[in-house]
Amino acid sequence: MFGRALDIVFPRSCAGCRAGSWPFCQTCVEALEPLGPPWCRRCGRPAAVDVETCRDCPPAPISSARAAFAYAGPARSAVHRLKFSGWRGVGSALAAAIAAVGPPPADAVTWVPLARRRRAERGFDQARVLAKALARLVDLPAVAFVRRVQATPPQARRGREERLLAMRDAFRCIPGRIAPARVLLVDDVLTTGATASACAEALADAGALEVHLLTACRSFSGRLTGLAGRPPPSGGGRPAPAAYTQACFRPGLWLPGDPPR
Ligand SMILES: [Zn+2]
Ligand SMILES: [Zn+2]
Known about the structure:
single chain; 261 residues; alpha/beta; Rossmann fold; 4-stranded parallel β-sheet; two-stranded antiparallel ribbon; 8 helices; 6 strands; globular; binds zinc ion
């Protein structure tokens, strides 16, 4: 109810540019880079043809991963808006996009929590905002099963192995909370998966047998190779989206003061 009142005071606008209509205006829709097949079936990384696994698959405790968009353009703006303003309208726009990727059957939704101090500084936890909105859409409970005992250290110059090591023991089960067998783990952006994987390990300790990671965006650190032969999407007169028609390197994904996760 409170949320609806806020929507009247601050009417919902485009999550990407804030100027157009909610959830994404036509201009932003055309600039979005939705991720879809052909891809890695396990982690949803775009590929020239469907493959079972790939070298960018997040580490083992994560059963599967899907992201709605590449971390670029309006989707990236939306994530930043969510992160730094906690706008509910942005949260529900991104959650709707996550729901549209078709989450696997599950028993509960949870999220990669921020450390308590970070959450206190910010006043909210953006992954929790997304998880709550998604839970409503897929009609599942949103429950915290783990807490973060260690904030993410700056990782910009760390390699994959170092990141994994640094994140070990960053999450702990919440005493007395038993996770169900199948859990949807929500976060805003998937980068290496080190943070989400550490969180998934704690979820497994809490009883989860399958942890499916769902994020609003996925950032690709290296080149997206092997996509030159990617056929344009079939049907419709719309031109193929610009995403992944060329192998591209994405530098400077993070704004100053925004540690990668
Ligand atoms: Zn827009
Ligand atoms: Zn993969």
